[in-house]
Amino acid sequence: MTSPVQTEGDRTSAVPDAAGPKDGSQEAKTPAGLSPGQLMWRRFRRDRTGVVSAFVVLFFFLVALAAPLIKMVYGKDPYTLYGQDSLDLLDEFNMPTGTFGGMSPDHWFGIEPNLGRDVFMQLVYGMRTSIYTALAATVLMVLVGVVIGLVGGYYGGKVDYWLGRLTDFLLGFPSQLFFIASMPVVVAAFVRPDEETPTALRAAAIIVVLSTLGWMGLSRLIRAATLSLREREFVEAAKIAGASPWRIIRKELLPNLVTPILVQATLLLPSTILSVAFLSFVGVGFVEPTPDWGRMFATGASIYEQDPAYMVFPGVAMVIFVVAFNLLGDSVRDAFDPKSGR
Amino acid sequence: MLQFLIRRTFGAILTLFLISAVTFFMFFAIPQDPALLACGKNCTPDALAVIHQNLGLDKPVPVQFWNFLVGIFAGRDFAVGHCSAPCFGVSFSNQQNVWDTIVDRFPLTLSLSVGGLIVFLIVGLGAGLIAAKNKGTAIDKVFSSASLVLTSMQIYFLGPVVLGLFVYSTGWLDKPSWVPIGESVSGWFMGLLIPWLVMSVIFTANYTRMSRSTMIEQLQEEHVRAARAKGMSSRYVFFRYAWRGSLIPIVTILGMDLGALFGGAMVTEITFGLPGIGRLARDSVIDKDLPLTMGVMIVSAAFILLFNLIVDAMYAVIDPRVRLS
Fold first, then answer.
1. Res. B31 pLDDT band, cuts 50 70 90
2. What band does B35 get if pLDDT is binned at 50, 70 and 90?
3. Residue A7 reports pLDDT greater than 60
4. pLDDT of residue B319
């Protein structure tokens, strides 16, 4: 299957030098063949849908990353109540005066009803909040999932049995309900009810709550893959050569698990972003004044009858983002494993 | 078959017990006084004392949990009065019986979930079958790309858009509202029509994709070809052979989606302002009404597990191999 990585594994275990160079130096191998990574990259580049959606996703990440820069160029920020400062932006019902949600050269995406903040900045910073939180949560999920899957799959026996039961149990949990029910509890564990919750703590709570119930799918997959890898000759060879379990996991198993981990991570991230948005929409995620993508929908839904334009930008942005991410996930999977086919 | 069901029921009860225990300990064993959490910002010592008394918080947590469990089966006596058989305690915010509140809100969520489920199964599987039958044609392509865009839709975005198009600007459909089915069947139906359609959209696409691909796979199987070679009508082969085989993976996905179905119902209720269990859960969390949150959590988990059990039974009916494993 993934022979070049395998040969690397065999080679490194045959010559046990613990302080070897940093792994991932794939060009140092058989000059004629291509590594699975190179093959994957080649297949991926040929998939036009995949490349386009990768650029779209990248664009969203760049916007999130460069939000302070965009703010500088654009000259507005997500907190100032522009509608309160200048009286002609909002009418007597606190709705934007201009056409289509008050769009103007000054406020590209219009003005938020009631508070009168800039919608464009709200969206850019809101995406930043959601994407950062979701990234951290996804990394945590992947870490936990990989560790538990590897440990269960590699050690087997009682350890595997109990980790498997834990996984099953958590899979049976009504997750969305658990998310909202546990948010205040996790926050309350650190902050007294009469105090203001710092945004960083809220983000940490969201990350912890989401990743508690987010790792099981990945861990099951990793466990199954580890089980089959464990029996392979190169692992046995490493064992006979006297490699420690830690070394075998790191040098023999992990390089062969990169594919499923990457594929799962690209599938996990968009759903995590939606979960973050869900929490904020429901009202237990990020609170004012932190700008957040999901909360824009809550605001939008409450004033939709009067100002439908407000919801268009966050909504369309989210649909494009999720479509692109889903297509990207499919393409990455196809590139890694051409047999799976759509 | 019976043995299989008994085993699954036992597993479900165990899971339910564990869920209750985890939630209970999570809520009542955190470093802070749960009563303080409920008491809020304007807490007086008197109010705190009342909550303490109501909850029996002076006892150790395992004893509290035991009392809570006993209360569910045998009822409990609180300072504010007796709370009969399925007793989940008394709400912090309005002193009402939690069970009564849940029973009151439950029909809406059940109507919403079951209706949404029926809509997305019919539409999703139907579209998938049509796409599979016309594989490679324009119909197939339209269905497949539509399903891709629709999976990426969110209830909280689609809901207001549909409201704007069909209610506010054209007036073709009724504004979503809750009319008990006992009062008026047509009112019930029209009030829930938009929520059903919007809620089912996010699920539909998944089932279209799934049923299309498994159906195409099944149609290439040997036994399907053999049946066709024997001269059976293609309709019979399509439904009795290929369709039945493709149901197995679909039922598996369905089993996993039931929890999400509840989550979907919750978002739908909040989006359209319908007073169901999902909104109750949200409101109770925001009000820090712990007994209510606990009650909603356990009752919903019980229902999700019950639905799972039904799916498992269906699974065993469709695929005889499952019963043996």
1. low
2. low
3. no
4. 72
Q: Name every chain B residue with its beta carbon within 8 A of the beta carbon of A180.
A: 281-282, 285
Q: Any bridge partners for residue B90, and if so which?
A: B97
Of A172, A178, A189, the CB nearest to B30: A189
The predicted structure's pLDDT at residue A145: 93
The most distant pair of C-alpha atoms in chain A lies apart, rounded to whole Å, by 81
- Can you tell me whether residue B97 is helix, strand or coil? strand
CB contact under 8 A, A172 and B305: yes
Instruction: Summarize pLDDT for A249-308 with one digit per residue, the tens.
Output: 888 888 888 888 888 888 888 889 888 888 888 888 888 788 888 888 888 888 877 777
User: At CB < 8 A and 24+ separation, what contacts does B46-52 make?
Assistant: B50/B79, B51/B92
User: Is A326 touching B (CB cutoff 8 A)?
Assistant: yes
Which of A177, A300, A319 comes nearest B160 by C-beta?
A300
Tens of pLDDT along A112-167?
A: 777 778 888 888 888 898 999 999 999 999 999 999 999 998 888 898 889 888 88
3-state secondary structure B24-73: HHHHHCCCCCHHHHHHCCCCCHHHHHHHHHHHCCCCCHHHHHHHHHHHHH
Question: Cβ-count burial of B185 within 10 angstroms (0-12 exposed, 13-18 middle, 19+ buried)?
Answer: exposed
Residue-range domain boundaries for chain B: 105-323
The single-letter DSSP state of residue A28 is G
**Backbone φ/ψ region at B41: left (φ over 0), alpha (ψ -120 to 50), beta:** alpha
Closest CA to A201 of A186, A215, A179: A186
Q: Are A126 and A291 a contacting pair, CB within 8 Å? A: yes
User: Which residue has better confidence, B29 or B252?
Assistant: B252
Three-state DSSP class for residue A111: strand
Contact A118, A90 (CB under 8 A): no
Interface of B with A in 209-238 (CB under 8 A): 213
Answer whether A174 sits within 8 Å of B154, measured CB to CB. no
- At A335, give phi and psi (nearest 5°): -65, -40
Question: What is B105-323's CATH superfamily?
Answer: MetI-like (1.10.3720.10)
For residue A20, the tally of other CB atoms under 10 A from its CB is 11
Nearest residue to A107 via CA among A85, A129, A131, A127: A85
